[in-house]
Structure prediction request, 231 residues.
Amino acid sequence: SQQGEEDPQALSIQEGENATMNCSYKTSINNLQWYRQNSGRGLVHLILIRSNEREKHSGRLRVTLDTSKKSSSLLITASRAADTASYFCATAPMNTGFQKLVFGTGTRLLVSP
Amino acid sequence: NAGVTQTPKFQVLKTGQSMTLQCAQDMNHEYMSWYRQDPGMGLRLIHYSVGAGITDQGEVPNGYNVSRSTTEDFPLRLLSAAPSQTSVYFCASSYRQARLMGMNTEAFFGQGTRLTVV
Prediction:
């Protein structure tokens, strides 16, 4: 399987705390994306980081990318109960076409009030 | 603006039956894909299309057919349903970003079709 791995599989925190989840992947990439999935719903795009970027911010989200280690992390600061969802990383592998996103196995985040 | 619309939302099939999952997008996206999501497996690519008349296989294509006669529609056909095809199916679409950049763009997902094969 080409799938990436995410760590941890599940994370439980209190509102106001920070949540960090990690993603490892297997091949060289064009870019890496993070998606959120609320229970029973489709995936929603959060942020995209290109292979020549090392860090990117969007609101309370901070993404880092280390292509030498083939890994990325997503930090959600000051978590809210509404952040409760599953989070997936997805990579666009180099030289395999632009619509063949490879998804990780996901991290289930529970933020308690 | 409806985005990506999938129908039906739920379906129960008997083993051996065939059916078509519908996917339509109104954003004039060139790229469309079908994924299946199974517990603990994340999403796996079934088939994808880079434009009308062009389709190709993903990671798990066996037992599925697709066609892309228009930019808007990308139906997924199950030829002879098997219990192993019980899953949640997602359709996604995205723009083809500037050719010079050659970079992927964010994907927009439908709400999913939950399929059970008994």
Remarks:
- The interface with chain A takes residues 4, 31-33, 35, 40-45, 48-50, 56, 58-59, 90, 92, 94, 96-97, 102-112 of chain B (CB under 8 Å).
- DSSP finds no helices and eleven strands in chain B.
- The two ends of chain B are 36 Å apart (CA to CA).
- The first strand of chain B starts at residue 4 and ends at 7.
